[in-house]
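@channel sequence for tomorrow's demo:
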Amino acid sequence: MSTDSATLLEALQIWNEGLHAAFTDLLHHEGKWFCVFREGQEHASFDGQIRVLVSEEGQTWKSCAVVTMPGADLRDPKLSLTPEGRLMLVAGMRIAQHTGRTLGWFSFDGANWGSPSVLVPDDEWLWRVTWHAGVAYGVAYNWGPPEAPHYLRMYTSRAGRSFQSLGEELLTEDFPNETSLVFREDGLCYALVRRETGSRSAVLGTSPMPYAIWTWQETGLSLGGPNLLVLPDGRLIAGGRIHGDSGPQTALLWLDPDTGESTPFLTLPSAGDTSYPGLAWYEDVLWVSYYSSHEGPTAIYLARVEVPSS
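structure tokens (generated this afternoon):
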């Protein structure tokens, strides 16, 4: 696995309206880029709404939709593409401090989203949905205070509107929560999990179909807002918030699938309130959406990164 330096081709600020913009995701579909994120008064205010941006070339962006839910805080929007070519938007709806549900919307154009579906039982947060071989998968964590018992549970769905549990709880120790999944062509699944207590190290899980038996390894880094991408050559790239000598920053890392070891290879222009990158591989370039407060109030950024070959 190559761990040579990557080249930051550009990092553009693509949105700076509103008081607090954060928690991004990114997807390319039918010649257009879509970027989603939460807007609100503050990082944890109860007025969160989801904004959808669209761009044809990744340079000029415009707002094409705002998704709201009166009386609730919509958080951490995530995008995926269904087998029939619809955009799927998933977000957590916070009703009270530690109470909420997971909602899903669908759209063919990114502008019209229709009515949401409740995806999993209340007070479980299906943080991201990933499609593999025509089936949707995701890992939910229970919405509760840090002192409450916590667990992860894997869910699956054929249509993406109602998810069924795949069995027993995956992790229960050290407050596991935000989880991103990716799949190799042979069906092997990787899970990158944020943890909040104990060593606080994110863990990398590996499981073959039918995803009943998991092997877990510590990555050695605390990672906020984790995202995971498998490159065409099989290498694993992760992104999220790390804490270095200069404080919190959004970084990209190599993950060794055999040992779980993480190796940061690029820190994006970022500081302060930052993280939650969206990752997309397009025309042999890594595209990254993220948010940061290094230039003042939080804003949304888009970076393009040239990654060394294996």
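heads up for whoever presents: Residues 7-306 form a domain with the Neuraminidase fold (CATH 2.120.10.10).
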